[in-house]
Amino acid sequence: MTKPQAGFTLLELVIAIAIFALLGVACWRLFDGVLRAERSSSAHEQTLRGLQRAVALIERDVLHLHTSATSPGLVLYPSQLNLRRANWRNPLGQPRSELQDVSYTLENGELWRYSQGLEGGELQKQKLLTDVRDLRWRLYDPALGWRTDWPTGKAAPKGTPRALELQFSAGRFEQLRRVMLLPEGQ
Prior knowledge:
The chain crosses the membrane at residues 6-31. By secondary structure, this protein is of the alpha+beta class.
């Protein structure tokens, strides 16, 4: 009598290889899905951080708004905000004023911040946001309500505005709105 041979038949080997191949493809698809979700959430987080950084910079400038009897410190046009801010950091102790003129402008879908000291010097240009589709500024006047411009001179309203509203759409975010209280005038 001959002993039966131990081992697998060709059909059993083909079935085992097919099962392992299916498991490998399923694991690869799962891993690829996790990588895609991680990339998407990382891009979303980067965009959100950029938005938060830009709004925080605007809030900081608005918080340090400098108004006086001779200068309103704030001029608003439909597409541009100009303000004068105080408490400009001077870490090197240079002989200069703590006042700085700041302007926010939308140019070709990019929000730019321009700043310059009162003594002149170099104009600093900083890109805050890209892919901005819509940008609107409004100021709240207690007597007249929300205004899209804030004139100066003889046409200037009495008093100072109480709040600044920023509305914009950028990147994958639609109709973001931020209202910032303005400091009282001196």
